[in-house]
Amino acid sequence: MAAPPLELQNYFLTELQFSANRQFDPSKPIETKPVHFVCNPCFLPDPGNPRHYQVALTLKHPPNEGINYPYTFALEIVGFFVIRDGYPEEGLERMVRITAPSLLYGVAREVVRAATGRGPFLSVIIPTVSFFEPPANPMPPAGEPAAALATTAAVKPPPTKPRARSKAKKESPAAPER
Predict the structure, then answer these.
(1) Which of 2, 41, 56, 103 places its Cα 20 to 30 Å from the Cα of 77?
(2) Average pLDDT over residues 8-23
(3) Cα dihedral 144/39/171/174 (nearest 10)
(4) Sign of the torsion angle spanned by Cα atoms 174, 31, 73, 132
């Protein structure tokens, strides 16, 4: 097994807010749409060493009037990263902008799952996201307009079909059970 080009050396939470939605109706489908989630990374390279980065990731599911979702939450997680020697300088920043927030998002998903698992509804595993963006000015495939290549960090919603609640408290891979 080879060492990865980007190493997460440490991380911590700087903010964690969690609330159960008292208007949530477990008998109705859960409404999960990408626009209901806010996910913003912030990058701070070390001025003394361009191979050291501090990355903060803010993740929020704010209250959405009329949306049937069991929880609102907000968190910020800060990670410290080191890029291994030998990684090419020309791809360094791009690799950090894709990989660092992806690693922190995985940690954030677990924090949300753990917090919601202690709430009145069953635990939530938030949708996945991609921090990948195509390189600037890529050549479009033959017959395909260039605009079709543009992508942004997109949240993939989980299924909204309600699941039967068992007697034992279990975690749902996509959304809270009812």
Answers:
(1) 2
(2) 96
(3) -20
(4) positive
- Residue 151 is assigned to a structural domain of this protein: no
Domain count, the chain: 1
With contact defined as beta carbons under 8 Å apart, do 73 and 19 qualify?
A: yes
Handedness of CA 94, 99, 105, 107 (dihedral sign): negative
CATH code (residue 14): 3.10.420.10
Task: Kindly state whether residue 90 falls inside one of the protein's structural domains.
Answer: yes
Strands laid side by side in the 71-83 sheet: 6-20, 71-83, 49-61, 38-46
**Tens-digit pLDDT profile for residues 27-83:** 999 888 888 899 999 999 999 998 999 999 999 999 888 899 999 999 999 999 999
Q: How confident is the model at residue 138 (pLDDT cuts 50, 70, 90)?
A: low
169 in a structural domain: no
Sole residue written with tokens 């001025």:
47
**pTM of structure:** 0.74
In a domain, 1, yes or no: no
Paired sense of beta strands 49-61 and 38-46, if any = antiparallel
Q: Which domain holds residue 125?
A: 6-136
